[in-house]
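ok so i was messing around last nite and threw this chain in just to see what happens. nothing serious, just curious
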Amino acid sequence: MSTPFWIAHHPEEQRCRCVRLFGFDVCARCLGLYPLLFVLLGIEMAVSAPLLQAFEPWILTGLTLPSLFDWARGRFEPSSGNNAVRIATGALLACALARTLWFHMVEPLNTFTSAHLSWILLTAALVEITATVRKARQREPRTREALEREIQLLSDLCADSLMKEAAQPEAEAGGIEEARPQAEAVIETENEIANEIAESLPP
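result:
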């Protein structure tokens, strides 16, 4: 059964970051995050949990850091980490967000809630932008080399074709002379394409 992206949160080549559950690939970190988050929020609402205590901002910040660090490391090193760590850090994040969201429900947009959520979002955005730029830069040299190899291969094939034609018997000379301009035109077109590609790629 195909798993929708909104459940897996990863493309097919990264499904190792998911847990197979009821026939679906479920994002491991989200599996640790959302169920526990809703349970804790429900408990806080049921018992009318107290508001923010003086020591809690430090604890909640500490509970958030492992998940942010593990997620950021995964963005830069896709092969790092494992699902057990992702589930565990997701659960820690759930504990932090449950308290933060409860404060927000009681006192909307209070200072700590705004600061905590803004810090998470800004950190995630910075990591995502940096990882995307880094991957793009890593792909550029390989793209240039692949294009250069392909162009060289095509040029070699055309050159081999001309050499074979030149080695054929004189009886076929008339046909060779007719085909030669076409082959030379192909080589010229390839050179033009190569120049255009070289100009379009970054140095």
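not much to say yet. The two ends are 45 Å apart (CA to CA).
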